[in-house]
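Recap quiz, item 2
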Amino acid sequence: MKTTLSGTEGRALAQPLFIKIADIMISLFSEDPELKLGVEGPMKNFLVEERGADVRVRAGWGDCLEESKGRMLFDAGALWQLYHEDGSYFFRFTSSALGPLPYKVSRFDLEYTSGNVYLRRQLFKSGQPIYPLEYPLDELLIVNLLARGKGVVVHACGIVDPHGKGHLFVGQSEAGKTTIAKLWQNEPNITVLSDDRIILRKIDKTIWMYGTPWHGEAELASPAQVPVRRIYFLRHGEKNELFSQRPVDALARLFACSFPPFYNRDALDFTLGFLEDVVINVPCYGLKFKPDKSVVEFIQEERFT
Amino acid sequence: MKERRKKMSSRHGKEARQPKKPYSKPELKQVPLRPEEAVLGGCKTASASNSPNIGGNCSTPGNCFTILS
């Protein structure tokens, strides 16, 4: 099947969007004036005025989205599949509620420097702004760009304390990330970078954490960044307790809470090496916590700061 | 040669004086991985969806996305 696009000849293009996540710039533009671009909610925090792009993505409508003729590299289940074609990667996005046909397809060059995304026109209301990179495509794009020697996305809540130090609370779903974020949220001079996803990067021998737009239930998402002071692996408990964590255990737990491209050997190799660097350079602890304000005081106590 | 032997024996002496680490049995620790989460294969709270357009996939309409009616 062929992707068919609406005619754009002689018409002004829609306003492009520039999105910056963990210092990675995405330039998103529409090839069709009828495809208006826009974002809502916390993603707005990641729109920037500055120009430039690590990756340029062109968006367009498709009446009948093409299927890949390439080799399937990865099947993430009901939500998306990745194919490798000659000189490009092809993502196919489906929804169980919308039937077996893709509602969106996207193709990128092998270095993820440019790509396009096509949306099945009949599923979208015309005239309303649309964000064609909507999850999971934006996160997949950043995950793949980071995995080229830049960093790693981790399942974590990130807090910046009043001294500007970063506290990273790592855990899978239900571990307590949103609970921790909400407990800290109204403390004075505190910034919550995210209650669900944090990007780690190493800049000048320092491990930094960046907020992301992929928030949890608390919908907290800040584009700020700070050096990581401590890493805590979350567990619910009857009281607040901190346990030292051997680097080897911390590495295993951090890896289990990261989002590497499992379908790329080099990327996995980089991710493991990078996370090893993280656990060697940043003190790691297990944290059992009582879900009330006492955990905030516990972490802020002088002996732990 | 004598000098080298002296150095060697002095080094061995130092090593001998260091207390031996007690033997600990190798242990296998299992760290749970949640595949669906790790591969971004699950629903996510919508952050940029312009309702009533499409967002991520979720079997419960109204959570992640709203379908056009």
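Helices of chain A lie at 137-146, 177-185, 247-256, 265-281, 294-300.
The first strand of chain A starts at residue 17 and ends at 21.
End of item.
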